[in-house]
Amino acid sequence: MKRAKPEFNHSNIYKKEDWWACWIGFIVLALCATGVIGSWYKVPKISVWTNNALVAFSGQSVVSYVIMFAGLAVIYLIALKIIGEKVKTFIPAFLVVFVIGVFSLFIGDQKSLKGLGLSYPLWGLAVGLLISNTVGVPKWLAVAVRTELYIKCGLVVLGAEILFTRILALGPYGLVIAWVVTPIVLWVMFMYGTRVLKMERELALPISAAASVCGVSAAIATGAACKAKDEYITIAVGQTLVFTVFMMVAMPALARFLGLSELMAGAWIGGTVDSTGAVPASGEMIGPLAMEAAVTIKMIQNILIGIIAFVVATFWVTRVEKTKDGRKPSAWEIWFRMPKFIIGFIFASIVFSFVLIPALGNDSVNGILKVTKVFRTEFFALAFVSIGLHSNFRELGKYFKKGKPLHLYWVGQTFNILLTLLFVWLMLSGTVFKLPSF
């Protein structure tokens, strides 16, 4: 059987969207680390507001958002132009997406809604869906609807927040809870979806990854690795966003009902609540120790995004697609398929953990990360708006026939909750192992 010979072209490093996500993420991180962003340019801040919406924005924040828009518009325009996209209407189109993204952040910071866990991803998605399912998305606007590019940039920046010093805080306890349970749940859900529910693999996998790893980020990373349709990723993301709100409130209540210690409750929440952003809020409902444990477990889980994306790319190239055309792929095809933004994610984590922390200290790096988080949040906001603008209920409806996506999610999430609870008890109850000094 002949081995495929994929073409290797060094121009890929500047003509592919994945690589541009790395370059853009690195530019943002470098500017933040050197103080250009944060000291010279003050990042915008939306304050939590109750009744008076005007208190959410200061004059400085408005100016900062204008500068942020201009900077991102220019760099995205350059990227898309080099990639080969038509960018004639990009600036006004990006302005619309950017404004909706900021609006979603603004609504998400309303005190009552924030307390209920109805954060910016849900509002960005809702506004996008409202537009796409009523007046529709005009062609001139479509050029700025770049779900994958925005989320990939956000994931590269997120990599800087995955600090190995935090991971070491729970040591082997956290590694066992996050790295043993997560792959098991992912595999069981995928098998259940494809073998029992007879779902397409490219639909079952993003849903399984979203429920087992870390919600939206994992769904998009694995979806890219297996070349899932945009509609499939939208379903996985949509379900995750809706049910995260329920999980965020239900898990602390269930932990109290079971009488779990604060440490156990936090670890359980970190391993089961899908959204990284919802985890600290959910853990905080129990207490500060629970919040810290929840965030640490979720960070350890987040590392698996890159590993799982690589495994999925390898599996799809060597097993799934091999059965479609009968050819034997080369090792290069695994490299070409693997989402390159994962390299940026891992590189950012390594640099911040092993270069910047020793050089600058924890306090300085934490200050930098407060700044990078503003950009990471903005990238994600743009992505959620784009997901909504890309989605049409009539198109999505056919994938929900017989309720298979919902069925898979809840069977898998129930299994995840129970298995995580078992491992949390084994590692952190003090019955089997000595409790960590956390």
What count of domains describes the coordinates? 1
Using only C-alpha atoms, the radius of gyration works out to: 21 Å
Helical run tally: 20
Classify the helix fraction into a percent range.
Answer: over 70%
Question: Can you give keywords for this protein?
Answer:
438 residues, mainly alpha, 20 helices, globular, disordered N terminus
Summarize the entry for a quick read.
With 438 residues, the chain is an all-alpha fold.
Give the secondary structure arrangement, pairings included.
Blueprint: H1 12-15, H2 17-33, H3 59-83, H4 90-108, H5 111-115, H6 120-132, H7 139-142, H8 147-159, H9 164-196, H10 201-214, H11 216-225, H12 230-258, H13 262-272, H14 278-284, H15 288-325, H16 331-337, H17 341-360, H18 362-390, H19 393-397, H20 404-428
Describe the 3D structure.
The chain is mostly helical. It has one domain (13-428). It contains 20 helices and no strands. The protein has helices at 12-15, 17-33, 59-83, 90-108, 111-115, 120-132, 139-142, 147-159, 164-196, 201-214, 216-225, 230-258, 262-272, 278-284, 288-325, 331-337, 341-360, 362-390, 393-397, 404-428. It starts with 11 loop residues before the first helix and ends in a 10-residue tail after the last helix. The model is unreliable at 1-8 (pLDDT under 50).
